[in-house]
Design a protein that fits this description.
The protein is mostly helical. It is built from 17 helices and 2 strands. Helix 6 runs parallel beside helix 10. It is globular, with a radius of gyration of 25 Å. The protein starts with a strand and ends with a helix.
Length: 398
């Protein structure tokens, strides 16, 4: 029998208060899907042993009451999990779906002729049959990583093509936003399904074997987006784009922009994955605790603070101003949210139900925040248009 037990480190027990102990237990149960909690008393040197025990018992009582109110069954036998692995037929279907997704991506990016796409499909299909049916290779991690890279990139590409289409230009803000939302959610849902289908075996859900491609699946789609954006901008002529970049004079503003982009990239990457390379602020921890107590499945900041607001602002601004910088900056913001959606399902030690609820909660909280951001942009533009001449005069004197 295999099971996982959650326990708090001695170093934490020596310094955390009882309310933080409670929140650690909640994360262990919800985010890590642990069903056995090993409770040890606090060891805070500022309190007596009796006080530490009382505080621990108080936190444990709060935990019991909290999960009872959330509908969890306590003190019941844990159900045995199946150790049955997916068969070759399932792996073949997953591989074919990824192959089709890759060909769609190439078709949207380079507008490849149908006969070449058919040839690539046949070659890819032969490779799939050879590796899975003949050689019997275990490609589950490759499938999961491929889905985490492919579908966020594909959703961003389809979104860019849509906002450049006549349908976007002739539709209202609401229609454009709904279609864009369907593109982002629909395409990334395929990625989520592919990931959980690939990593559904008990060795992954129990952390016996870990999927280590989380950070890679966050970094590469961002790089891919910049490359695909450049290809679209250059009229699918990468050589001309490279020449254009090499001939561009770099000024102070560009250097500052690149520096800010580098800092943002470092923070986003450092905050992704199973372990965080950057310390989480006390304010964010407090917001997390509030969201966990209200929603249980806490939505990810990258989705409701970055992804959905970026999508709404992109839809609003690009119709008014056809600036390529709007596509690039806000498109990257949307992509960050898309990557976060699929990455939630890469953490397969959490249940699929919790990951799904987390995604829904991200949507529910992200929409009002995004609308508020659009309102702020609208007011800022209105103020700028009203005092445009004065602002330009002040800037010219600097």
């Amino acid at each position: 029998a295999i099971n996982r037990v959650y326990s708090i480190y001695d170093s934490l027990l020596a310094k955390i208060p009882s309310d933080e102990m409670f929140n650690n237990w909640v994360r262990g149960i919800v985010d890590r899907n642990n069903r056995l909690i090993y409770i040890r008393p606090l060891m805070n040197s500022k309190h007596t042993a009796s006080q530490n025990i009382d505080n621990t018992i108080s936190a444990a009582s709060k935990l019991t009451e909290f999960f009872s109110d959330k509908g969890y069954e306590l003190n019941t036998p844990i159900k045995s999990l199946s150790d049955r692995a997916s068969g070759k037929a399932s792996h073949t279907l997953i591989a074919i779906s990824l192959l089709v997704g890759c060909l769609l991506y190439l078709s949207y990016l380079f507008e490849i002729k149908t006969k070449y796409l058919v040839a690539l499909f046949i070659v890819g299909l032969l490779g799939i049959m050879l590796s899975i049916l003949v050689v019997n290779m275990d490609l589950t991690k490759v499938f999961a990583l491929g889905a985490a890279l492919l579908f966020p990139s594909l959703s961003s590409l389809v979104l860019l093509r849509y906002i450049r289409s006549s349908l976007y230009n002739n539709s209202s803000f609401i229609i454009n936003w709904l279609i864009s939302l369907c593109i982002v959610l629909g395409v990334n849902a395929l990625g989520m399904f592919t990931i959980i289908s690939s990593l559904s075996h008990i060795t992954y859900t129990m952390n016996i074997d870990m999927f280590k491609g989380v950070k890679l699946s966050f970094i590469l789609p961002l790089i891919i987006f910049v490359l695909q954006y450049g290809i679209l901008l250059s009229g699918k002529k990468p050589v001309s784009l490279i020449k254009r970049i090499l001939k561009t004079n770099i000024n102070l503003a560009a250097l500052i922009l690149f520096a800010l982009a580098g800092i943002a990239f470092y923070v986003l990457v450092g905050r992704s994955g199973n372990t965080s390379g950057i310390q989480v602020s006390s304010l964010e921890l407090k917001i997390r605790e509030v969201l966990e107590e209200l929603l249980l499945a806490r939505p990810r900041f990258k989705e409701f603070v970055i992804g959905y607001p970026s999508l709404l602002i992109l839809i609003y601004l690009y119709k008014k101003y056809k600036y390529s910088i709007i596509e690039l900056v806000l498109g990257l913001g949307v992509l960050v949210g898309s990557i976060s959606m699929t990455n939630s399902f890469c953490h397969v030690f959490a249940s699929t139900e919790i990951s799904f609820k987390r995604t829904i909660n991200g949507l529910i909280t992200g929409i009002p925040i995004g609308l508020l951001c659009v309102l702020c942009v609208y007011l800022l533009l209105a103020l700028y248009n009203r005092y445009k001449d004065k602002i330009k005069g002040l800037l010219s004197n600097i």
